[in-house]
């Protein structure tokens, strides 16, 4: 589908829906194609590390009672 710039601005949401349904969308200026909708490639997110230490922290016992508090149980 080829649409002119004015029509593309007016019906942008509809054009996106058509594109997501698989239709090719081309925007033209003065009847000449100038751009085409294209999907954005998904990038792999890199893992993020919290803090500045380069070490592993064992959090498996985080919710265990504190030794000093065991006597009050």
Give the structural class. Answer: alpha+beta
For the largest sheet, list the strands in their spatial order: 1-2-3
Total beta-strand segments:
3
The number of helical runs is 2
Mean pLDDT value: 83
Shape: rod-shaped
List the main descriptive attributes of the protein structure presented here.
single chain; 73 residues; 3-stranded mixed sheet; 21% helix; rod-shaped
Overall description:
With 73 residues, the chain is an alpha+beta fold. The protein has two helices and three strands; from the N terminus they run βααββ. It has helices spanning 5-10, 12-20, and strands spanning 2-4, 26-29, 32-36. A three-stranded mixed β-sheet has the order 1-2-3. 0% of the residues are buried. The mean pLDDT is 83.
Brief account:
With 73 residues, this protein is of the alpha+beta class. It has helices spanning 5-10, 12-20; strands spanning 2-4, 26-29, 32-36.
Helix-strand layout with pairing:
Layout: E1 2-4, H1 5-10, H2 12-20, E2 26-29, E3 32-36
Parallel strand pairs: 1-2
Antiparallel strand pairs: 2-3
